[in-house]
Design a protein that fits this description.
Blueprint lengths: L5 H35 L7 H13 L7 H33 L3 E6 L5 H9 L5 E6 L2 H9 L5 E8 L3 E2 L1 H9 L3 E9 L3 E4 L10 E4 L1 H6 L1 H5 L5 E4 L3 H11 L4 E5 L1 H6 L3 E4 L9 E8 L10 E7 L6 H11 L4 E8 L7 E8 L5 H12 L3 E8 L7
Parallel strand pairs: 1-2, 1-3, 7-8, 7-9
Antiparallel strand pairs: 3-4, 3-11, 5-11, 6-9, 6-10, 12-14, 12-15, 13-14
GO molecular function: chorismate mutase activity; prephenate dehydratase activity
InterPro entries: ACT-like_dom_sf, ACT_dom, Chor_mutase/pphenate_deHydtase, Chorismate_II_sf, CM_dom_sf, CM_II_prokaryot, Preph_deHydtase
Function: Catalyzes the Claisen rearrangement of chorismate to prephenate and the decarboxylation/dehydration of prephenate to phenylpyruvate.
């Protein structure tokens, strides 16, 4: 038998690839029509049963059954790609509708120049909006619940100092829903009046998180009194209005510019990769086809090994946990709520079943939201 000609074999593969490309492109054209159909009828993208039927049907068409496991892998990838194309189309349609809608009212804690305001501006960049600012985190939450604003923006976690416990408690207490998140890079700066110097500072104001993130810097300046304040930007505003060169603030560069302050020391946070995750809260849950992150809060039975037993069901259900934060139950010593972030979309039956199993073995279980994770989290 003559030895096969590799060049001719590759030419044949190239010919078949051209046919395959044409067929797949036509398939994607049809998938676009499917996405439009589902969008018009508010249908979910994922139909696991249909995907399995299509895959099995194609595998069954093979003349050589030895190729079955390989064809199954190919079809599963095609199904995934088709699903992602539909998700991209539906998500783009949602963004366009939001862009063309009437202005929405959104709120944040602090003033312009704060990191919360930056997160709001970044998240709602292409959406017509009316911004409202509040003094306390709880003010933002109650404004959402009272429908003064549609969305609230709250910091919930910092990469250097961990979870912001007050926000975890407020979201659960007021039965809020998480509908989005935004992660921003946080650079803390020591600000003072024009002409002021670090050596002459006696008091520095900032949000407790800002002071904590800059603790290494202030250990070198033990004579400076650190005073917690409502918000980093409000600290800058207060220092500016005081006219006192002995007062300083830890805040952003934007706050320095807004309130006419000088940067006495830049990037004083000890972690150069310092980031804060903000959540977008609403009174009602929302679901986007491209949602890929879920937040739940659970409570376990007050008995040995109860948390371990519940967490086992995350593993058994194939649920990928990203974060776990414990918060004490009010009035019940040594009992806790656990806030858990995980990957997934609630339209996926496997995810729903996994969470149902978790709920069955928990004393309390509530889904706080299913939303699109910020790419900065990757």
């Amino acid at each position: 038998m003559a030895e096969p000609d590799l060049t001719k074999l590759r030419q044949e593969i190239d010919r078949l690839d051209a046919i395959l490309t044409d067929t797949l492109e036509k398939r994607m054209d049809v998938v676009q029509q499917v996405a439009a159909y589902k969008d018009a009828r508010n249908m979910q993208v994922l139909d696991r049963e249909r995907e399995e039927q299509v895959t099995a049907k194609v595998v069954g068409m093979l003349k050589n059954p030895a190729y079955a496991p390989h064809m199954k892998q190919i079809m599963e990838k095609i199904m995934e790609t088709s699903r992602n194309l539909q998700i991209d189309i539906l998500a783009a349609n949602i963004k366009q509708k939001e862009k063309n809608a009437d202005p929405i009212r959104v709120g944040y804690q602090g003033v312009k120049g704060s990191f919360s305001h930056q997160a709001l501006e970044d998240y709602f960049a292409d959406i017509a909006k009316v911004e409202m600012n509040f003094v306390h985190f709880e003010d933002v939450v109650t404004a959402v619940k009272n429908h003064e604003i549609k969305y609230g923006v709250l910091p919930i976690e910092n990469s250097s100092t961990g979870g912001i416990t007050e926000v975890y408690d407020l979201v659960r207490k007021y039965d809020c829903h998480i509908v989005g998140e935004k992660i921003i890079k946080v650079d803390q700066n020591l600000l003072g009046l024009p002409g002021a110097s670090i050596d002459n500072l006696k008091q520095v104001y900032s949000h407790p998180q800002g002071l904590e993130q800059s603790r290494e810097f202030f250990r070198k300046h033990p004579a400076i009194e650190l005073i917690p304040f409502f918000n980093t930007a409000r600290s800058a505003q207060m220092v500016s209005e005081s006219g006192n060169p002995a007062k300083g603030a830890v805040a952003s560069r934007q706050a320095a510019k807004l309130y006419g302050l000088e940067i006495l020391a830049a990037n004083i946070n000890y972690n150069s990769a310092n980031r804060t995750r903000f959540i977008i809260i609403a009174d009602q849950p929302e679901h986007r086809p491209d949602a890929d992150k879920i937040t739940v809060v659970i409570a376990t039975q007050h008995e040995p090994g109860s948390l371990y037993k519940v967490l086992q069901h995350f593993y058994k259900g194939g649920l990928n946990m990203l974060n776990l934060e414990s918060r004490p139950m009010e009035g019940r010593s040594w009992e806790y709520f656990f806030h858990i972030d995980l990957t997934g979309n609630l339209s996926d039956p496997k995810v729903r079943q996994g969470l149902q199993d978790v709920a069955e073995y928990s004393a309390y279980c509530k889904i706080l939201g299913n939303y699109v994770a910020d790419g900065e989290n990757a």
